[in-house]
Amino acid sequence: MPEYVYEAKTRNGEIRRGLREADNEEAVTSWLRAQQMNPLQVKKKAREFSLTFGQAVTPKDLVIFTRQFSTMIDAGLPLVQCLDILSNQNDNPFFAGILRDVKSHVEQGKNFSESLARHPKVFDHLFCNLIRAGEMGGILDTILNRLAIYIEKRVKLARQVRGAMVYPAAILGIAVLVISVLLTWVIPTFKKMFADFGAADQLPALTQFVINISEGFVGWFPFVFVGLVLLGTGLSYGYRQPAGREFAHRLLLEMPILGPVMRKIAVARFTRTLGTLLSSGVPILDALEIVASSSGNVVVEKAILNARLRISEGRNLAEPLGETKVFPSMVVQMIGVGEQTGALDTMLNKIADFYEEEVDVAVAAMTSLLEPLMMVVIGGVCGVMIIAMYLPIFEIAGKVKSD
User: CA angle at residue 317 from 315 to 322, to 5 degrees?
Assistant: First the structure.
């Protein structure tokens, strides 16, 4: 529906300007007169780009906004006044513009949650649903405080995911770079030196083997590069397909060292999000749908949606979760206890606290295990190359000494 900018005069002579969605200018004019205002100007809002490079709302911006908003609502300030204050004092001009847009639609009579939903890249489905629950229950300040805590914990968890994934990838990338430099420039230099000494035909087996690898790498490098590009393109295309994405996510959960860490992260994210939604009054079927869409893993998402289907058929939550084999048995049993005692949200938050600590320990353990392991592998490969290159030098030196 198009938006119209209006300017009108009240009975007291005050000039008011605003923005309103309507089918046409006549509808806006009729609405203004119904509000006992005299329309001065009504025109269609010009289309504009709402997003440009370098503009973004960070999780830190979102946390500060929700905490300040919670404090203001708790102090009894009207919703529109809160939005006006927060938009004027916000250091992020992009976020300030979004808050002004939200304020404008709230002034037009829209619900706060509906106004936030106009900006899904900033306020996601979970955020808007929790706000809707807070509006319906009259506990908006409490919901905002819970949201701030949830976002902080989600950011911490995302940082742990990056730590679990980036560190091994960085070490592997450095290893490939170092070995490529050795094979491309260092080994050919030694080969030329051996040829100058006339020892190219009498090299030790290990030295000749390394030189052959270097020659093959340099000679076939364009083909290897093209092959890697094609492989990367193929993997990227396959990952965009549903079956390929599911295979990659399942493999990620079942890898020897990284898999247990990713599984614990998935459990922590699931229990924290579901616990926050249920404690805020969101119905369990709606909560499970939101949790599934924000799980970040197709395998976990399917398991949650399967549990949701079983609950809609009259079963409890623990049994279908146990059948998926995605969640550990301890988690399933604790969820079962939470359902029996009527304190599922509290139990889910306790599980989330436990698994977030487990993720801390698991990431630290994985890092401490991978670091020496990969250093040994990289050092071993580089050491073999260096020894292979120095063996002929030792033999030449021995011959010179004996002569």
Answer: 105
Q: 108-117, 259-268, 270-279, 391-400: lowest mean pLDDT where?
A: 391-400
Helix, strand, or coil here: 351?
helix
207-to-58, 204, 317, 378, 393 alpha-carbon distances in Å: 54, 5, 63, 18, 11
How many domains does one find in the chain? 3
Q: Is residue 50 within 8 Å of residue 19, measured between CB atoms?
A: no
Query: Distance between CA atoms of 66 and 152, rounded to whole angstroms?
Result: 11
Same-domain check for residues 230 and 363? yes
Give yes or no for a contact between 100 and 86, defined as CB atoms under 8 angstroms apart.
no
- Cα separation, 328 vs 267, in Å, equals 8
pTM, two decimal places: 0.66
To the nearest whole percent, how much of the chain has pLDDT over 90?
16
CATH of the domain at 128: 1.20.81.30
Q: Are residues 305 and 347 in the same domain?
A: yes
Host H or E run for residue 58? none
Q: How far is CA 17 from CA 24, 38, 43, 78, in A?
A: 17, 12, 12, 20
Banded pLDDT at 86 (limits 50, 70, 90): very high
Residue 53 lies in a domain: no
Domain of 127, in residue numbers: 59-152
Convert the pLDDT of each residue in 240-275 to its tens digit: 888 898 899 999 888 887 888 888 888 988 999 899
